[in-house]
Amino acid sequence: MTPAISIKDLYKTYDNGFQALKGISLDVQEGDFFALLGANGAGKSTTIGILSTLVRKTSGQVQVFGQNVDTNSYETKINLGVVPQEVNFNHFEKVFDIVVTQGGYYGLPVRLARERAEKYLTQLGLWDKHNQQARTLSGGMKRRLLIARALVHEPRLLLLDEPTAGVDIELRRSTWEFLQGINRSGTTIVLTTHYLEEAESLCRNIAMIDQGEIVENTSMKALLRKLHQEMFILDLRHELEQAPALNGQVCQLLDPGTLEVTLESHQDLNEVFAQLQALNIQVKSMRNKSNRLEQLFINLLKKPEQHA
Amino acid sequence: MAGISLNYKYTAFKTIVWKEIRRFLRIWVQTLVPPVITISLYFVIFGNLIGNRIGQMGGYTYMEFIVPGLIMMAVINNSYANVVSSFFSQKYQRSIEELLVSPVPNHVILSGFVLGGVARGLAIGVIATVISLFFSGLHMHNLFITLMVVLMSSIVFSLGGFINAIYANKFDDIAIIPTFVLTPLIYLGGVFYSVELLPEFWRVVSKLNPIFYMVNAFRYGILGVSDVAVGYAFSMLVLFTAGLFAFSLFLLHRGKGLRH
Fold this sequence. Notes:
The structure holds 2 protein chains of 2 kinds. In chain A, the strands form 3 sheets. A 6-stranded mixed beta sheet of chain A has the order 6-7-8-3-9-10, sandwiched between helices. Chain A has a 4-stranded antiparallel beta sheet with strand order 2-1-4-5. Chain A is globular. The longest helix of chain A has 16 residues, at 169-184. Chain A is α/β, with parallel strands linked by helices. Chain A has helices at residues 44-51, 73-77, 95-105, 110-123, 139-151, 169-184, 196-202, 220-225, 269-278, 292-301, 304-307; strands at 5-13, 19-28, 33-37, 59-64, 67-68, 80-83, 157-161, 188-193, 205-210, 213-219, 229-236, 250-255, 258-264, 283-288. In chain A, helix 3 (95-105) packs across helix 4 (110-123) and helix 3 (95-105) packs parallel to helix 5 (139-151). Chain B has one domain. In chain B, 75% of the residues lie in helices and 2% in strands. Chain B has a two-stranded antiparallel ribbon with strand order 1-2. In chain B, a hairpin with a 2-residue loop joins strand 1 (56-57) and strand 2 (60-61). Chain B is elongated, with a radius of gyration of 19 Å.
């Protein structure tokens, strides 16, 4: 099957001499929910920019659904929806007009563009604001408007550059649910994010990019299996003054009522609970520490001298 | 680009034009009212108060003589201002990326912005003509020439505004050309006088000014008098239109100031 995105030996050097991409190669299959992770300046947005033609590549080959972005720009762009990192609509235009106008740029007749605008603004919880100027929206709503605008022509591939940056938790969760629904209906999604929890929750495959190079490109499951350790947060029924000494596991007291326990991959939780019970420490509740990916990310991006 | 149908291009073009018209109508206090005030003042002060003491020019009263020039000045200024301010502000707040990521071909983008500028230029032209009726009767020597000249002049200056916006990096940059280039060219382009009044040297210099041809061809369409052959003036307009359109397209293809 033709991949949704095929990138080969992609280089980008900006006019000021900064080399943003140093020969990255990447395939994203159709229907995938793919994460591109990396620190600021790693090359994520440059990659998205080249796919959306806002950034000109220095060399390499980029195809979208088998079409070369240089020679078949109409065929590639018509299949592409782009949600940029920064809000880039006219703040003085009405919410509805912004989405309908974008539909016109993709050749949708006005009636269809209006129907689609209503559909996506409703799904993203913005319909009651459709007649307001975009500047009156909150930050989270503006980001959702960017998503509605990118979807109006119902693209096969949606590129999201930090889609939930600065969005509160509740709105972020509902945006995730919306994106998962779009993906289930067949839209390929590629997102860049700083929220590693976001990538872990949403994406099936992942590439990590560091200083313009791909340092990891695999499935989320395979990546997480690489973790030798897993951390759990235990909420205690009674407060402790100091962390208990467990035989074989590392634990630390985050506060008098919260214990963090680190398990090696060969260890299991039963051992921890048995030891805590023996020490008469009662656990009220437990949760998985959600920064497993963060930990791996830090490990992967560690400079060689830091390992030394 | 073989996959692009005419129907698609027409839809995209219509969308851009309508968006541009919606913009200048939305901010009508900034776009439509000031020219009305300025033109009225020109008519009152230059045409009525001072003009009565000047006497005839080119066989017409001074008021009748300056009406075509003032209408043309309004068309030129507003066509230019519409495109330069709209395109630059979209570039500045990056909403131009909405268009750049879409499949709209560059010539459709350019044509859309230019027609937006023409729409505002002509709207102001009509308003200026209506205002002139309060001060002077409406002559019409040749309607076709009048309409063609005003249309082509509007296109030329919309293209000029587009090029200015492409090169502009800050809001100051979109004020420099209108202030230091456009205004002197308009005032020295024969709006208020016939070049026959000038010494030989300045008469030759005036003929290097593109606005001189526009004003005179337009004046010919309305009054039937001109300081230059109308055919020659049309040739210059066609040349400017073609040259500026080609250059604007070249800049868009290169992504000058738009793509990194």
